[in-house]
């Protein structure tokens, strides 16, 4: 429903802006430009979707190897001591822990198709433990906020879009994105812990958070003081080591468990083709609306206004062009994806704006979609502090994305 209003609004604003350009400034060609943008955007959306097929097939094949090899279960066992402490109201060894851990692990590995049904199952199990069936429990809120924070280890789709848009190194946003999404998740978790009075001084919680935060801050500090050429080499090397390491881990673990690795890859790769074809109408719809909005001059005015605000507060004004993506992400994932692609097409995949939009796209999830689907599936009416905590982690994630992108690519 939100995307419906956004889509209609962009088109109507484009037409209104075109009328202003025509009647006030006498630009007789403006309506032709807006119309031509619809054809160009539709063609661009189709070509991008088809071009994604190979990259998505590759990574979804690799991820399917990991899933069949038991990687999700391995990750679940690894984080069990930590999650038992941030969900103190759930009885020890309750089956819902396994379901939640599988959801988190699937999200981190980029297995969105698997994560959503598992997440809905977890919400159903949490509802069974909930005393008030109309009001969200503390455990539900923590689960939803962590899910909406968008913590991802392998940003498969974003790397695929960057490759299709001509990025020299599609994985160069991997490290900055991982840092930004970590700070988003950390902010959301701490906000919920504060409201629910969860003891973060517990040695397991505190040790985990200090260790991970120190690692992220250390990498940011090193990045801040490295020459630009060395930083780019460092970022690309770390991304390559992590991604290749994950591929080897998946294959080795699957082989040890006697999984037919080749067949698992083929089965997963088929899903990549179906995913690429399935997004064509959605991508064309949002690209056409955004294309009309830009052709009318409305996007330019918005970016100019934000650039002046950024310059006034001492931020690189070029980064203002990424603001529409940042504002769209909590409302609509497909809308933000369209703006990300449009930004790369306009400014270049390897531009500061293009890279920043990719980082923003992967930093958080679509907050209002997650809340409505997860709580709506079990009939929760009172979501309590879930929305405020989710929006807080969105805000911190967006701020972190701007800062980190400026350090790495500014």
Keywords:
mainly alpha, single chain, globular, 410 residues, 78% helix, 0% strand
Polypeptide structure, described:
The chain is an all-alpha fold and 410 residues long. The protein has helices at residues 2-23, 30-51, 53-68, 71-86, 95-108, 112-129, 138-148, 156-164, 174-196, 203-224, 228-256, 261-278, 280-295, 298-312, 323-328, 333-347, 352-363, 367-376, 386-409. The protein is globular. The mean pLDDT is 85.
Topology readout:
Layout: H1 2-23, H2 30-51, H3 53-68, H4 71-86, H5 95-108, H6 112-129, H7 138-148, H8 156-164, H9 174-196, H10 203-224, H11 228-256, H12 261-278, H13 280-295, H14 298-312, H15 323-328, H16 333-347, H17 352-363, H18 367-376, H19 386-409
Helix pairs in contact: 1-13, 2-13, 3-8, 3-11, 3-12, 4-5, 5-6, 7-9, 7-19, 9-10, 9-17, 9-19, 13-16, 16-17, 17-19
Radius of gyration: 22 Å
The overall strand count is 0
Average pLDDT? 85
**What class would the helix/strand composition place it in?**
mainly alpha
Number of continuous helical runs: 19
What order do the SSEs take from the amino end to the carboxyl end, as H and E?
Answer: HHHHHHHHHHHHHHHHHHH
């Amino acid at each position: 429903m939100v995307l419906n209003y956004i889509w209609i609004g962009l088109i109507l604003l484009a037409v209104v802006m075109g009328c202003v350009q025509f009647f006030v400034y006498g630009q007789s060609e403006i309506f032709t430009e807006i119309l031509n943008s619809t054809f160009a955007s539709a063609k661009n959306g189709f070509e991008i979707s088809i071009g994604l097929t190979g990259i998505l097939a590759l990574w979804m094949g690799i991820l399917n190897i990991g899933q069949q090899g038991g990687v999700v279960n391995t990750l679940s066992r690894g984080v069990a001591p930590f999650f038992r402490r941030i969900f103190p109201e759930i009885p020890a060894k309750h089956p819902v822990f396994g379901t939640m851990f599988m959801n988190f692990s699937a999200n981190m590995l980029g297995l969105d198709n698997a994560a959503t049904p598992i997440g809905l199952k977890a919400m159903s199990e949490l509802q069974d433990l909930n005393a008030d069936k109309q009001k969200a429990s503390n455990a539900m809120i923590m689960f939803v906020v962590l899910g909406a924070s968008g913590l991802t280890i392998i940003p498969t789709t974003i790397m695929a879009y960057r490759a299709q848009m001509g990025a020299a190194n599609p994985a160069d946003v991997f490290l900055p994105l991982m840092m930004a999404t970590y700070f988003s998740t950390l902010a959301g978790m701490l906000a919920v812990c504060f409201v629910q009075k969860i003891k973060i001084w517990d040695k397991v919680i505190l040790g985990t958070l200090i260790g991970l935060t120190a690692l992220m801050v250390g990498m940011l500090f090193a990045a801040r003081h490295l020459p630009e050429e060395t930083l780019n080499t460092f970022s690309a090397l770390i991304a390559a080591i992590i991604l290749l390491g994950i591929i080897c881990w998946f294959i080795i673990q699957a082989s040890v468990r006697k999984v037919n690795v080749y067949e698992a890859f083929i089965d997963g790769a088929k899903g990549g083709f179906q995913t690429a074809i399935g997004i064509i109408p959605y991508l064309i719809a949002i690209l056409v609306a955004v294309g009309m909005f830009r052709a009318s001059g409305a996007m330019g005015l918005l970016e100019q206004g934000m650039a002046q605000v950024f310059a006034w507060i001492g931020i690189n004004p070029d980064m203002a062009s990424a603001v529409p993506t940042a504002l769209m992400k909590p409302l609509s994932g497909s809308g933000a994806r369209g703006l990300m692609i449009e930004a790369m097409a306009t400014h270049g995949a390897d531009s500061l704006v293009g890279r920043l939009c990719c980082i923003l796209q992967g930093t958080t999830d679509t907050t209002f979609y997650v809340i409505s689907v997860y709580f709506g599936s079990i009939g929760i009416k009172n979501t309590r502090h879930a929305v405020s905590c989710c929006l807080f982690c969105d805000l911190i994630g967006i701020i972190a994305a701007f800062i980190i992108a400026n350090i790495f690519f500014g």
